[in-house]
Design a protein that fits this description.
single chain, alpha/beta, Rossmann fold, Methionyl-tRNA Fmet Formyltransferase, Chain A, domain 2, 7-stranded mixed beta sheet, 24% strand, elongated
Length: 311
């Protein structure tokens, strides 16, 4: 089939690579515009764009999808199907109706649960034991279209959102190829989503990383995993932000919420149980082991974490 692919971040790269390695013909790739990054604000191309250019595939980066330029380009490309994975744009009706086989989305959750831009992160934050990938026909709503196929996978007890994202990207790539085979052969089955089971997973904000040690240790442990690698979990000590990159759950150890226990390990009391902060990063500093951070602190300084600098 002639395929136009729409995707932007690292998650979308394995699916594009799988299509390039298949018998299908990728005739064009749509990706979001290059973004300025780093101290020099140098424009950096999205990962999907880089892969497409490396294979000589034409790349389109429209700023708007509703001004007619995207539609005109697609009419020239004449795709049989449009495949979308984490593109980050809403497609208007005239684009959704253009390809003969429709627009197929690769979504990193078991729909109708976790619709939206942050399904992987919120599934980890919420302590889910399993998740998966859904291929679906796209409609005008947010992840509301008919389901084509789903693949489920367990979430490891120590797995971060970043690690899970990489696994789901690989699973989604293979699921998409199988879905296209079913579509092309006329064997695809559409299943409407049960709206009563729908939940939403909004894009993460920096504030979603704030740790409140009055909450149970298990909840904080899941939060730390779910906001890794971005925006990272954090709390305040001595009025300064300390990022928490990795922690260990100590459910049977108790302590005053937010208080550092005496000892050589960076163990902090929670509303229920405790956490050992294994890897932390001081404000303006480098990542380090929790015990090294503790060792470098002066005797008699503040020993209680807060969720904001003024507490």
């Amino acid at each position: 089939m002639r395929i136009v692919y729409m995707g932007t971040p690292d998650f979308a790269v394995p699916t594009l690579q799988a299509l390039l390695d298949s018998s299908h013909e990728v005739v064009g790739v749509f990706s979001q515009p290059d973004r300025p990054k780093g101290r020099g604000y140098k424009l950096v191309p999205p990962p999907v764009k880089e892969l497409a250019l490396a294979h000589g595939i034409p790349v389109y980066q429209p700023v708007k999808m509703r001004d007619g330029t995207a539609l005109a380009a697609l009419e020239q490309l004449k795709p049989d199907v449009i495949v979308v994975a984490a593109y980050g744009r809403i497609l208007p009706k005239e684009i959704l109706e253009l390809p003969a086989y429709g627009c197929v989305n690769v979504h990193a959750s078991l729909l109708p649960r976790y619709r939206g831009a942050g399904p992987v992160q919120w599934s980890v934050i919420n302590g889910e034991e399993a998740t998966g990938v859904t291929t679906m026909f796209m409609g005008e709503g947010l992840d509301t279209g008919d389901i084509l196929e789903q693949a489920q996978t367990p979430i490891g007890p120590e797995e971060t959102a970043g690690e899970l994202m990489d696994r789901l990207a690989a699973i989604g790539a293979q699921l998409l190829l199988h879905t296209l085979t079913l579509l092309e052969s006329g064997k695809a089955v559409r299943t409407k989503q049960d709206e009563s089971l729908a939940t939403y997973a909004p894009m993460l904000q920096k504030s979603d990383g704030a740790l409140d040690f009055s909450r149970p240790a298990q909840k904080l442990y899941d939060q730390i995993r779910g906001v890794s690698p971005w925006p990272s979990a954090y709390a305040y000590l001595d009025g300064k932000r300390l990022k928490v990159h990795k922690a260990a759950l100590l459910p049977d150890q108790t302590g005053e919420p937010g208080e550092i226990r005496d000892g050589k390990r960076l163990i902090v009391g929670c509303g229920e149980g405790s956490l050992e902060l294994l890897e932390v990063q001081p404000e303006g500093g480098k990542r380090m082991r929790g015990e090294d951070f503790l060792r470098g602190r002066r005797p008699g300084v503040e020993k209680k974490f807060t969720s904001c600098p003024s507490e």
